[in-house]
Amino acid sequence: MRVLKVGRRKILVFHFNIPIMKAVIIGGGVIGLCSAYYLQKTGWQVTVLDDSRGDEGCSYGNLGMIVPSHFVPLSSPGAIAKGVRWLFDSRSPFYIKFSFDPRLISWALRFVRNATRQNVEKAAIPLVEFNLYSQSLFEELNAEPGLDFGLEHTGILMYYKSQKAADEEMHLARKAGELGIDVEILNKDEVQRLEPQTELDVLGAAHYRCDAHLDPNRFMVQLRKCLQVSGVDVQSNTSVTQIIASSGRIQKVITSKGEQEGDAYVLACGAWLGQLAKRLGLKIPLIAGKGYSFTYERPLKKLNFPAILCEARVAISPMCERMRYGGTMEVGSPDNKINMNRVKGIVESISQYLPDFNLNVPDTNDIWYGLRPCSPDGLPYVGRSSKFENLLIAGGHCMMGMSLGPATGKSIADLANNKKTHVDIRAFEPSRFS
Fold it and tell me: What is the pTM of this model?
């Protein structure tokens, strides 16, 4: 307090030293960076610990799809039925690398138990609401100075070739309509009019007009730069070696570059979330699901609309002057090997739907792979730790990490600020398997 004299009057001036709260985020993917963005926006001093060089991982090599249409979690009756058939096909979209790893066995048993119609129905509304919320946040982000990542609202086309797949997509479209999702079933002629420069060999498609897509590489690079300009300390090539906890709180984090202390900590470390949580005595079942993608610069043939080839489970995204193709889900212990049979399966399936897309199998150096963090019930983990009062969990988004990045980051910031989240996230409770 001090006395300020103004003319003949004396005014008492009070100084309040409001402490700046510090957050330490473990993980520099889309979930970690979005959490950093919204925490910094609300006055937190933020440090992001990224054990990569900052230009790799699932957040960079994905298809950039924002998908309110994806209201059916990975763990579903259909996944079990198709998965059993695909297990014996080396080029199939889904594969489990069986081993005697107790984590894999435990995860697989939970996956089967959760692959029920009841689980799908229970997950639908939370997933749709979270995705729609995230899409609105993407629109806000794209309007920010320094952020222009090719956000387009053309929707996504779900192509099908067989009557069985057509029946499944029509059933899903009816369910989507009941959930308020904008979707239309198109016959072959109607789809062909949307892609007049490309020959289509399909029965038709479901057009989810609610969906959008972006360029994930541009988004991540721009967001990272935006954070650094705003004062966020983003540390690349920084691995966490130890987390010190006592009295129900995280006290500090030991890294390869020193110690970090904070008032709040966020675990957003992708496919390694389960392992890091285990060090703290937390039970967060998670397994890595490897996926592949490859990108062509200035291709001879290009789609107007992002697409998913239903039977093949292959995704295609136009990104400015590029085309990206991706697919497969290879579940098991993570490694850095590229299974060329699975890549060949992606390439061969494309020509079955798009006959004039004569693609060659890319060289190994041109193939990207990433490890998707998969929970047993197909839902992400977003919320407070039940064991440590200053620890927040954000992960397990499977193939929707990019789509749900902003909604997750904003929810983490709301929780850190003791505010009610914009949408109900109780379905994503991190301790639901404890």
Answer: 0.92
